Amino acid sequence: MLRIKNLKCSYGNIMAVQGASLSVNNGELISIIGANGSGKSTLLLAICGLLTSWEGEIIFKEKNIKGLSPPSIVKSGISMVPEGRQIFSPLSVIDNLKMGAYTMYRKGMKKEVSDDLDMIMELFPILRERANQLAGTLSGGEQQMLAIGRALMARPQLLVLDEPSMGLAPKIVDMIFGIIKNLRKEGVTILLVEQNARAALKISDRGYVLETGKIVLQGSAEELLVDDDVKRAYLGRDYGDFYDGR
Q1: Strand order, beta sheet including 214-220
Q2: Interior CA angle at 220 toward 141 and 222, to 5°?
Q3: So what's the pLDDT on residue 105?
Q4: With contact defined as beta carbons under 8 Å apart, do 203 and 181 qualify?
Q5: Parallel, antiparallel, or unpaired for β 78-81 and 29-33?
Q6: pLDDT digit string, tens, across residues 148-198
Q7: CATH code reported for the domain at 2-234
Q8: Distance of CA 41 to CAs 124, 191, 200, Å?
Q9: Which of 9-23, 186-200, 224-238 bottoms out in mean pLDDT, i.e. has the lowest?
Q10: Rounded Cα–Cα distance for residues 128 and 102 (Å)
Q11: Using CB atoms within 10 A of its CB, is residue 30 exposed (0-12), middle (13-18) or buried (19+)?
Q12: CA distances from residue 39 to 31, 48, 196 in whole angstroms, order as listed
């Protein structure tokens, strides 16, 4: 579904991603792990059209998406749950979800949007309870559910998540990763960027390790979980031992 070849991203003279190559197959859950500053979020920004200064190839469904605007990339089938959630705080929960379906409203697909809203409310019952509440008053975990729901409202073929566990309590992280795992079981293709390496790999099919902008290791999630270098660098006791993958 997604193929990235020799991606190079820079901010001025600083090279944030240095020739990264990776792939995501239909139906897979792929994790990119790495320390802060390794280039993980920059890579996602390039995929989603939010970073224009890059070289290489990003092929989505056999089409080169370089030069496409973020709205065009959403229309093509990629939807992002951004780092820090970035919900529309002054809007209600229901209006945030409707914003995710903006392209569908433009096509006059009101019945489909209504059906999708029902689906999101079933997936996240708390959002139904909070439907008319201002999004900025939700808890961190509820805001993360809202951000995921908003992204799903665009009916993505590829769901991209950037650090979904950031700033959340362990119990809430456990729940969020369970939701992501269930979405994968339902057939959603997922690219997950996450510093919480153990929790991410426990629910993934494959993974890539990014260091200083370079892919230094790749393999199945099982292989990476037992790799000595990965364990030493990323799988200490502070990285998601609470999540058992159920």
Answers
A1: 78-81, 158-162, 189-193, 29-33, 206-211, 214-220
A2: 75
A3: 75
A4: yes
A5: unpaired
A6: 999 999 999 999 999 999 988 888 899 999 999 999 999 999 999 998 899
A7: 3.40.50.300
A8: 26, 12, 15
A9: 224-238
A10: 20
A11: buried
A12: 14, 15, 15
Going by pLDDT thresholds of 50, 70 and 90, the confidence category of residue 236 is low
Gyration radius (Cα) of the chain, Å? 18
CB-neighbour burial class of residue 28 (10 A; exposed 0-12, middle 13-18, buried 19+):
middle
The token duo for 183 is 């979405």
Contact 57, 66 (CB under 8 A): yes
- Reported as half-sphere exposure (CB side, CA atoms, 13 A), residue 229 has a value of 10
pLDDT of residue 245: 47
For 164-193, letters b (16+ CB in 10 Å) and e give: bbeebeeebbbbbbebbbebbeeebbbbbb
Residue pair 145/100 in contact by the 8 Å Cβ criterion: no
Q: Which residues contact 114 (CB under 8 A, 6 or more apart)?
A: none
CA 125/CA 147 separation, integer angstroms? 14
Name the residue type at position 210: L
Cα–Cα distance between 21 and 57 in angstroms, integer? Answer: 9
Both tokens of residue 144?
Answer: 């993360």
> Where do the domains of the chain lie?
2-234
